[in-house]
Amino acid sequence: MMKADPMFSADPSYGAKPSQQALGNGKVMTIVHTNGVHHLPVYPCMCEKKIDIDIQLLHSRLYPASSKDPSTAFTFEALKFFHLIKVQTHLSTENYSTLLRRLTNFIFPDETPDRQRELGRVWQQWNHLINLKRYGFGHTNRDRKPGKGDLALFCAACPQPNENLPDNWKDDPDSWKYRRYLVADGNFVLNHLRSHGLNKDKTVFLADGAGYMTQKARPGAGVTSAEIIESLWSQLNGAANITRTMTVSHRQEMLDACIADINWRKLQGLVPFLIRQLKKAEEERDEAQASFEGVDEAVTPEQRDRWREQMTTANSRRAADPTSMDVYNISVKKVEPKKDVQARLMAQEQANNAQLGVTRWVAQAIELQEHQIQLADLISCHKRSPTPSQSVEIQKKREFILKKLNSIMSEGEVLFPQAKLEEMSGRAPILREICLCNDTCTCADEIAVTSNPRPKPSDVEHSLLPLPSCLDTRPIGWSHIIDVEEELRVGQANEALEALRVEIAHKSYLYRANRGAASTGKKAKTRSYNAIGKVDRGIRNHVKSTLCSKKSNPSTQRQ
C-alpha cells in the first residue's frame, strides 16, 4: 500500500506541511506517530475489488481521522502509547498533542500541524473498539449491544456462581466464605462542571452504562460490584483536572478507561497480594482468638446470651431497619455538659432576678483555669530549649490569660464590692505531671514535675483565681457562689472523664497501628511516637481538670 520515496525518506519538512499535496498517484497524508508528526505519501489500492481507503489504512495499522477521504491518520503504536499515558498519568489530549509537536520541531513547534481535536475523537473510537474486542463483542457477539457492566473487567476475587465457586457451595456450613461485600462511596474530587450552550445535550455515548459508570439517565456516578472504593481514589484523583470540563460522554469514557486500567493492574497483582494477605491473616489469627477469649471469659452467661440475641435481631432487621445496627455502637450514658449546667443556672438566676452574672463569672474563672493548665503543659513541652516562635506563642498565651484575669477581677469587684478580692489569700492548685505508664515508668524524661510550691508571681499560669475552691477563707455570703462552682465542677469533671475515654481509646488504636513503638519502648522521634505523645499530653490535661474538680469540693467549707 505504502511505497518509499526518496523525497520523503528523511521527512525534511520537520513536520511542516509540504508544498505539494500529492506525489504521483499517492496522497500526502499527515501521519502521527510516537516520535512526532510526519508527512508521507500514501498509495491506496486501485484494483477493481478494492476496499475503502479507511479500511485499507486500518489494515496497515493506521487509524484514519475520518472515514471519507482521510488526510490524517494515527499509528496504532501512537494510540496505544497515548492510551497508556492517559490512564496512568492522566495526561490531557492537549498536552500530549503539544508534546508531539515539540518532538517534531523543538525550535518552532507551532509550525507543526495541530491534531488535538482529531486525536481526542480518534481516542474515543479507539478505546471503544478495543473494549468491544477485549470483552468479546468483536467476533462472537457482533450483533449484540453491550449491556450493563458487560465492558467491565471480571473480578477473580469476588465469589461468583458458575465462575469461581464449587458446585456445592450452598451446602458448605462455612457460608461466610462466599459472602460478597458491596461498598458505596463517592469521590468528590472528580467533580464535573455543568455544561451550558447549544450542544450540551448532543453528546454521543458509545457505551452508556456498559462499563463502570452508571447510565446517563441516572444522576451521579457509581461503581458496579465494588471494583473500586476510597483506597483507590488517590489513583483516580489525577484525572479530575482533565475530566472536569469534558462532555458527559467523554468524561464517562475517560473514567471507564482509568478504572479498567486500575482493575487490570489489580488483577495482575492479585495472586501475590492474596498470598501476602493469607500469611498476615494466619499470623494475626492467634492474637485475635486470644483477645476474643479474654473478653469472653470476663462476661457472664447471661450477658453472652443477651448479646447473642441482640446480634441475631440486629442482623435480621438491618435490611428493613438500619437503626437496628445501633446496638453495635458504644453505649455510654450521656452526661450533662458544663455549658448546659451553666445555661440552667443562669436561667434560674434570671427567673429569681437575683445574683445575676454570678454563674457566668464563675464559669469564666473555671475556663481560665483550664487555659492555665494548657499553658503549663505547653511550657513543660518546650522547657529545655524553646525556639523563638515557641517563646512568642507562650508569651501570647500568657498575655491572653493575664487580660482574662484582670477582666474577672474587675467584674468580681462589681459583683462583690465588700469581698476585697485583691486582698484574699489562697493557693492555686499545683498539679504535678501524671505518669501514664502501666508497669515501668518510661516518661521521666518527657514530663516536667513541678517542685516549687510557690511559683513566681509573673507565672500567670499559676496565678490565684478568685474561686471559692482556691481561697483559704471564703467571704461571708458566698454560699450561693459555692453551690454554683460545685455544680459547674461536676459538669467539668464529667466532660473531662468523657474526653479521657476518647483519648484512651485513641491511644489504644495508635499502639495497635504502631506496634513497633508500643513493644520496644524506645524514644525514637518517629511520627507514630509523636502522635502517641500528643495523646498522652491530652490525657494529662484532662486528668488535671478532673483533679481540679475533685480538689475543689467547696461544699465542705461553707460560711
TrEMBL record:
Organism domain of life: Eukaryota
Keywords: Coiled coil
Coiled coil regions in record: 271-298
Keyword Coiled coil appears in the UniProt entry: yes
Annotated stretches, region: Disordered: 1-21
InterPro entries, A to Z: CxC2_KDZ-assoc, KDZ
Transmembrane spans: none
Chain ranges of the CxC2-like cysteine cluster KDZ transposase-associated domain: 25-105
Annotated Pfam families: CxC2 (PF18803), KDZ (PF18758)
Statement: the UniProt record of this protein carries the keyword Coiled coil: yes
PANTHER family per record: CXC1-LIKE CYSTEINE CLUSTER ASSOCIATED WITH KDZ TRANSPOSASES DOMAIN-CONTAINING PROTEIN (PTHR33096:SF1), CXC2 DOMAIN-CONTAINING PROTEIN (PTHR33096)
Protein name: CxC2-like cysteine cluster KDZ transposase-associated domain-containing protein
